[in-house]
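Dear H.,

Thanks for agreeing to be a second pair of eyes. The structure we're designing against is below in token form, covering all 363 positions.
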């Protein structure tokens, strides 16, 4: 078995903890759990899979709790996951090669976020640094914590700025945390907002913190505040290549559409070349054109999205793009072209519904 410790923190996670640990069991990894005060069956269920269970006094800091769990591990190699994340696959042979070739780098695992949108189950995928050697990395950030390199001393005894090297780790997990009730999601968002605002007070302006505040307010459907924080984040010196910046730009665009600021959303054309590297942004531009009545341009962008391989949200380069193309053709009075587009959507229910209506009309 590989010398890997899987580290988790928990509080009242009886809904998820057993499925999470059950999926880890076949790999034989050490499991370390830091509990921050559960009053349900979390610890009882966890004991079926590990005896490495410790209590951590909650202090409003997720990084402190996760670093504590890492300290309790027997191995230096750490896989950090949350209780509502379930292992889908691990390529042990490839992971072993990564450990040998890149011991000081951070492995970015693939997380598939499951959520419901317009009554349909959808998925968003993102890579996040979660597999590291603890000699080189630790967590920072009270909420939406991130693994960052530890400071290192050079030969002169001075502290060098840490350099973060990353690679795609051959690990995929399914995140089901967005499956909760609307009430649970709102409570979680409000909790995160309080922690993020405290982070701003303590550490000052930070684009990543602004991004997370925007995301939290967006989940609360408070689009005006979300837009304000995206504006603040994007006004700072940010790296367009950073994953969170790409997502922030896209979330900003959707928020402008939610606020009916359709013409303002067209300003994203100014950053098209920087962000049209994946289908999500191109799909968004299709929607922006669509909302501004520029239908030829919208179809062009949506068709371009269907040719792109890189994406985050499921469907933006396939059934969702084709569905919107179908809507445009249908509204423009081209039923045959609309039917062709809808048929490309597979079993996407909204497309099947429109296809059934059009087929009935043309019998």
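And this is the sequence the design step returned. I haven't edited it by hand at all.
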């Amino acid at each position: 078995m590989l010398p890997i410790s899987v580290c988790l923190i928990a509080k009242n996670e009886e809904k998820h903890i057993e499925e999470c640990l059950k999926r880890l069991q076949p790999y034989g990894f050490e499991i370390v759990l830091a509990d921050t005060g559960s009053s349900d069956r979390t610890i009882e269920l966890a004991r079926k899979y590990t005896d490495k269970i410790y209590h951590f006094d909650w202090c409003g800091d997720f990084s402190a709790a996760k670093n504590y769990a890492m300290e309790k591990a027997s191995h230096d190699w750490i896989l950090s996951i949350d209780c509502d994340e379930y292992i889908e696959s691990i390529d042990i042979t490839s992971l072993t090669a990564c450990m040998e070739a890149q011991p000081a780098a951070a492995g970015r695992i693939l997380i598939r976020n499951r959520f419901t949108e317009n009554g349909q189950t959808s998925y968003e995928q993102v890579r996040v640094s979660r597999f590291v050697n603890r000699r080189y990395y630790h967590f920072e950030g009270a909420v939406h914590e991130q693994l960052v390199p530890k400071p290192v001393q050079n030969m002169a005894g001075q502290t060098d700025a840490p350099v973060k090297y990353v690679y795609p780790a051959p690990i995929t997990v399914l995140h089901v945390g967005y499956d909760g009730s609307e009430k649970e999601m709102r409570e979680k968002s409000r909790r995160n907002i309080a922690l993020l605002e405290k982070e701003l007070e303590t550490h000052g302006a930070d684009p990543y913190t602004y991004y997370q505040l925007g995301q939290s307010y967006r989940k609360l459907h408070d689009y005006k505040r979300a837009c304000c924080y995206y504006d603040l984040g994007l006004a700072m010196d940010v790296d367009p290549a950073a994953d969170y910046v790409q997502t922030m730009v896209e979330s900003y665009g959707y928020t402008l559409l939610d606020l009916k600021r359709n013409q303002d959303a067209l300003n994203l054309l100014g950053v098209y070349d920087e962000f049209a590297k994946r289908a999500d942004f191109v799909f968004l531009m299709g929607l922006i054109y669509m909302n501004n009545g520029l239908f030829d341009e919208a179809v062009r962008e949506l068709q371009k999205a269907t040719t792109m391989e890189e994406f985050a949200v499921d469907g933006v380069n396939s059934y969702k793009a084709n569905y919107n193309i179908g809507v445009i053709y249908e509204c423009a009075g081209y039923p045959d072209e609309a039917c062709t587009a809808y048929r490309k959507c597979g079993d996407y229910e909204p497309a099947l519904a429109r296809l059934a209506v059009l087929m009935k009309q043309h019998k």
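Two observations from my side: Residues 183-361 form a domain with the Serine Threonine Protein Phosphatase 5, Tetratricopeptide repeat fold (CATH 1.25.40.10). The longest strand covers residues 120-133.

Warmly,
E.
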